[in-house]
Amino acid sequence: MKVLLISANSESxxxxxxxxxxxxxxxxxxxxxxxxxxxxxxxxxxxxxxxSSVIKRMLPDVIGISIRNIDNQVMGETRFLLNPVKxxxxxxxxxxxxxxxxGGAGFSIFPEPxxxxxxxxxxxxxxxxxxxxxxxxxLERGGDISGIDGICLPGRAVQDSCIKRPPLKxxxxxxxxxxxxxxxxxxxxxxxxxxxxxxAMKCSYCSTPALEGTSIRKHPVEDVVEGIxxxxxxxxxxxxxxxxxxxxxxxxxxxxxxxxxxxxxxxxWRAILYPGFLDRELVRKMVKSGCVEVSLGFESGSEMILRxxxxxxxxxxVREASELLxxxxxxxxxxxxxxxxxxxxxxxxxxxxxxxxxxLDMLKLTTGIRIYPETELAQIARAEGVISPxxxxxxxxxxxxxxxxxxxxxxxxxxxxxxxxxxx
Length: 424
Ligand code: B12
Hints:
Blueprint: E1 2-7, H1 20-31, E2 35-40, H2 47-58, E3 62-66, H3 83-95, E4 100-103, H4 105-109, H5 111-118, E5 122-124, H6 128-141, E6 151-152, E7 191-193, E8 196-197, H7 208-212, E9 217-218, H8 221-233, E10 238-241, H9 250-263, E11 268-273, H10 280-288, E12 291-299, H11 303-308, H12 315-327, E13 331-338, H13 345-357, E14 362-367, E15 369-370, H14 376-383, E16 398-399, H15 405-416, E17 422-423
Parallel strand pairs: 1-2, 1-3, 3-4, 4-5, 7-10, 10-11, 11-12, 12-13, 13-14, 14-17
Antiparallel strand pairs: 5-6, 8-9, 15-16
């Protein structure tokens, strides 16, 4: 089949992420014998023109659309990001009558409401490398698609009676030739790379357990290094490990750093760390293998709030991690998430003072927490009447502890005014 895969994300908030998930789905689809074209709408001024011209040239049999973001996750200035996707679907419909299939992280958090809102034909909830080729095969043969794991059809619940999360060793790594940039030389491009899926930490507000599962699956270290070496050969030398927690499990992280060091690839990389579980040996290996910057999402400086968020670390461990990273010259981006259940003016001040004392290179402050389905936060919000029992949460809803509203905004603006390393 001729398969057109469109990455609908055109947001440059925070950074420009290349469409990693769609690249992996494209490789799996190609490996299954189909002809694939990947179209990234990032940076395009005229989506309608671009999409229509590719459809006219390629005449695809199927169109897959990747939906990464539903919204910008900002309580004060919320932006809902699905309307441009609706327009892209209208363009596809205007130039083609083939099935339109949705997938992606944002889509998979809200499969039924997103499919309904966008009016596409089929959705694939969760990882696409196995389900999408199975779906294409069934469409080609005219077979029944309703039993495929993760399939979502209009008006029906997702087929998830036994969603199997495949071992990563059976799944392809991204192909550097499919990135919509010629090579990384001289550009501010950090190639997203994933070595693990799943997170066992179950933070009270996080959507990752629902997306990736709670047991960690790993690509074999040799495959990761080979995949990165292929990118280096193609001219890329900067990588962003998108794993939820680069340092977990600790032995895998060390083995990966060792293998990168042995391969002598001379790369630079960034990653996301879980604040506890970081030791001197790992940080030494990280820096030696090219780590230059980490995101340290400690979220609060109050022990009470850390417990409420279901964090498995203490402020002492955050401080220890931060000092170790600083000692080894790794840039530290810190994150505070203010307004959780139980938050008070005192705990906010405690967090601000704690964060300031870490002398981070950058601190991002978020007020109000986006409520995701299937989380403890959603249960609390429902019990407190913050959201109604029927709310599917596709339209962004936020939790902000009672009584903080105006005070929090004013306090943060005043606090940030003489701290240029902070942003919201
Ligand atoms: C790493 C990450 C980041 C990094 C990105 C770094 C980089 N270089 O890419 C940083 C920190 C910069 C970031 C920023 C943001 N992020 Co972010 N990010 C993630 C994270 C943790 C992993 C994304 C990833 O790369 N996954 C790995 C790939 C392989 O998986 P995937 O893309 O999901 O693709 C798979 C499936 O979805 C599916 N699939 C994908 N496309 C398609 C298409 C079809 C047709 C099919 C069938 C299947 C399919 O198959 C793929 C392979 O299995 C996710 C959470 C998560 N666990 O997924 C959040 C997430 C995607 N981010 C999210 C958000 C909100 C943001 C920000 C808006 C936050 C902000 N205000 O700054 C920005 C937006 C950035 C932008 N410009 O778009 C939300 C999106 C949900 C929402 N509310 O909109 C998520 C889901 C986290 C959450 N809160 O729930 N992010």
